[in-house]
Structures are given as structure tokens and as C-alpha cells.
Amino acid sequence: MRRACLFSVAxxxxxxxxxxxxxxxxxxxxxxxGQGWQLIAEGFKFTEGPAVDAEGQVYFTDIPNNRIxxxxxxxxxTVFAENTAATNGLMFGPDGLLYGCRNGEKxxxxxDAQAQVQTIADDVxxxxxVIAGDGGIYFTDPPGGRVWYINPKRExxxxxxxxxxxxxxxxxxxxxxxxxxxxxxILWTFRVERDGxxxxxxxxxxxxxxxxxxxxxxxxxxxxDSVGRLYVATRAGLQFFDPTGRLGGTILKPQxxxxxNVCFGGKNLDTLYxxxxxxxFKRKTQATGxxxxxxxxxx
Amino acid sequence: MTQHGGSSRVxxxxxxVGLVLAVVSICLPQSASAADDYQLGPDSQVQEGVPQGTVTxxxxxxxxxxxxxxxxxxxxxxxxxDGSQPANVMVFQDGGSYVNPTQQFRTTIVFDNLIHKxxxxxxxxxxxxxxxxxxxxxxxxxxxNRSFEYDSLGDQYARFLLEEILPEVGKEYKLTNEAKxxxxxxxxxxxxxxxxxxWERPDAFxxxxxxxxxxxxxxxxxxxxxxxxxxERKPIRVFLQDGSGDLDNVHGSxxxxxxxxxxxxxxxxxxxxxxxxDGGHNGKHGGAILPExxxxxxxxx
Lengths: 299, 301
Prior knowledge:
The complex is a heterodimer of chains A (299) and B (301).
Chain A: H1 2-22, E1 38-42, E2 47-52, E3 58-62, E4 67-71, E5 77-82, E6 87-92, E7 98-102, E8 107-111, E9 117-122, E10 129-131, E11 137-141, E12 146-150, E13 156-161, E14 168-170, E15 176-180, E16 187-192, E17 198-205, E18 222-224, E19 230-233, E20 238-241, E21 247-251, E22 261-265, E23 271-276, E24 279-284
Chain B: H1 12-26, E1 54-61, E2 70-77, E3 88-93, H2 95-99, H3 107-116, E4 123-128, E5 132-133, E6 143-144, H4 146-151, H5 156-170, E7 182-187, H6 189-200, E8 207-211, H7 224-230, E9 237-243, E10 248-249, E11 252-253, H8 254-267, E12 271-277, H9 284-288, H10 290-297
């Protein structure tokens, strides 16, 4: 019996070591057997910016057609806004408003429930954005090679330069910001300082899977889930990483062609929605998305 | 099996012992596998009359190679070091575990015993933890830089050692600048890190000790064995340890990856030794054979 006790201790030590050294997050932890991608809607020109509201409904933009659409919980798709001036990245803020990169007018705007537009910032290029729990906004400016921050007082400033950013997302605790650069096989990470500044730029997520034949990964929009996995839409598919920056795997694309962006939606926030060229798809998962908790206002 | 001064062998003896214990354990209630039942030998115990070195804990904030990271590290200085000659150096990743005198490796005790018996040279040990980027506020999480530093291929970690840590330790102690007097070791991702440092900078590190090394696809490390085969041999001496019970997960199979490494090292005629036991993803086997590993790595020829 003493021998057995020794072995039990050894087993515990082994497990603890494994957890410390090489815990893995595999694709089977996310997907549900038999639940593939389900087509929600088609016939668009280029879909982008999936964003979930407080009820779990998902909004997305059809950039060239200048429309924002809404997917109800019963999958019914309706037009939410017209003449959207090539609005690209979308995300709901803690105030319940839909924030958007209205790049045709060089503006960051909000859309209220009636799709009335209010300008938050102007004279800026923008592609994608993320809204923190305190209302602060980070958005990417690919032509300028910059990431901007708009603090809760609506004052904007550049917080990162020298990269060609595309997608942007915060970790669930909002302490780390992640930025995609489409042609780089890495994702940039930054520490988020109390005043919204970014520091400690690093190639933390690396390497991304890159399809053979030349070109970069084509990394674009991102989201995180409740255990800290990060999902990024790429040419190879929907790649996901564990919180230590290690690639866990790639979820296949629903169809050949572009995969621009992703979000969690549905009543329980457990369904992945992807914008893929002319279509939008969804897929139920074992994972759960994240809503950013309110934080103390920045100093 | 000896090639270019190196040798390779599978640890048949430990395998047999493990098998016997496995059979015994089947008869016992609630027993786990009897494999991986490695024991520390006398060289891993404090011996009377053997001078003991000193261990000093330090903290390092990187400003150059991993800016913003903070980490603890420990410097072991053997009693025999008197500063008259440059000491050899051995760096360990996950230093807190390797330096701990009650855990699986007890490296400083082994150093004391082996240096005393002149079975390894006077060597200063530098035991370094992986970096952390501390959170900016109490409601945010710090970011562990361990996988980024250890699993990434490339020369960044080597530069961290050569441009930050070794110069810092060198301010206080006289360290050798010669690759033949510099070794590096680690466990799991720290193991592949050790290999990567020597692979990138064989002019700076010539000896590698890998315990259950992660030569798997965590961040592309499965390419190591392929690169070894297709690259002109580098002057690196390598001691690899792994076990049949090691991990098999989304990143790869550790037992197969280590066997691939051993096969590639053999193919490319490296001075290597591979100890493949029946252990899991831990330091028990590596700890038990640490004295023999160090004797082999530091041997004169």
C-alpha cells in the first residue's frame, strides 16, 4: 500500500508538470461532432465586421453594397442600415451602441437602434475596431500604419506605429491588445497601460499557419473566448491560439475564398459566425465568447 | 554505435526495471503505472566533506531583447571558484526548478559533488526563469513569455543570454567566453530552447542537455531534426533524455520527436547521447541521470 501511495504522488507530480509545461488546447475541445458550418445568408459582395449585441444577435456589414445586416436569433436576416459609406469593422460598446469604421467618410461612428449615425472621430482611416469595457476604442489605420486609441472622453491619439495593422482585439481581461498584420506570420501583442497607451510590442502569437505557394497568412479579424483562446480569420481557415501564444489548430473554412472575420453570437454566445466573401455562416461550438467587463475609467 | 566520439544507447536497464515495477503495480490497489520510477543516486545527495557552492537569487528586467519582461534568476558559484581563472558556465531554463535542492534535479548538489570529484570542471550555474510581462493594473493578467521565449525558433533567446544575462553575471564573476566552456540545459520547452541556443550560436554554446525536450510543433520545433540532417554539422555535443510515457498531444508526440532528433543527430554524425526510458513528461528520469549526463557532457575528449 505504501508503494501505491508513492505512485499516486508521482502521478500527481506528472500531471502537474504536464499542465505547467505543455497543456494543449485542441480543435476537438472547440468543435462539436456532426455540427459543421451552416449557411445563414448569401448574395453579398463582401461581408465583414460581425458583431454581437446584448441579446446574441449578430450584425455584419456588406462593404461594397453599403449595408449593415442583422441576423436574428432565429437566423432571419434583415437590413439594419443603408448607405453605410463602406462601413467595415463593427462592435457593440458597453453603452449598447454599434460602433463602426465608416471608412468611406473617414469616420468612426456609432449606430443606435434606429441606425442613426453619430460621429465619434473623423479624418481617420480605419479598418477594424475593439471597444473596451470603459468605452475606450482602439482602431486600426492600415494606410497610416498606425493603431489609434479614442479614450472615453473621445480624445484620439496614435498608440502604435510602424506596422500595417488589420484586425484588432483585446484579451478577456483587456490587459493585452492583439493586432493582425495580414502578410506577417505572427500576431502583434501589446500591453495595455492604464491610460490606454500600448507598450511591450511583441510577436507573441507565432507562427501562424501559412498556405504553401507564397503570400502571407492573410490574417484579418479576431475574437477571444472565455478561456482566453484567440481566433483569427486567415486564408488557411480559422486559426486559434492558446493564451500562451501557441497555435492550437485551424478550423476549416466553410468555403474556398476569403475568410475575413469572426465573432461569437447566439443566445448563449456559443456559436461562431464568420464572414466569408459573399456569405455568412455559423457553427455551434463548445466555447463561449466574451463581453468585456466594465473597468474603472482610465486616468 | 560510437560515431565521431559520441555514443548512443537506449537505457535498457531502466526500461527493464520499469517493466518489473509495472507488473508489480498491477497487483496493488489504486496504483498508477510503475514505470517512471527513477531514483536519485548519491551524487544527487549532499555528501559529507564536499564543499558546497553558494546560490544567490537575482531579478532581471530586460530592456533590450525581451523588453518589459521580468524574471528571477539564480547564480550558483562553486566553492572551488576563486576568480583566478575564467569559470565554465552552464545555463538552465526554468531555473527555479533546476536550482531547487529538494526537487527532481538538485543541480547545485550534483555540481558540488562532481566538481569536488573533478568529474566536471569548475562551472558557474545560471538558473533563469522565463520572463513575465507584468499586468499594468490589478484587474489585468500578467502575460507569461515562457512559450514565446523557449519554443520559438531563431536567435532571440541566444541574444538574450549573450547580450543581457552573461554580461551581467560577468560583471561579478570571471566567465569563459569560449563555446567549449559553455553548456545549456532545460526541460520540455526549456529543452528545445537549449538546443536552439546552441544551434543558432554554436560559436557561443557547445554543449546541450535536453530533458523531455519539446521538439514538437508548438512553434515549429518539429523542424529541428530536418534542419540537422540538411545542414553542415555544427560543433555541438548533445545529451537528450526522453521516455516512452512522454506527451502525445496537439503539438506532437514527444517520444517520436525525440527519437527523430536522435536519428537526425546520428545521421549527421553529431557527438550525441540519447537516453530513452519509460518516464513521462517530468524530470524524474532526467534528474536521476543528471550526474551521468553532466559527466558525459563535460568530459574532456
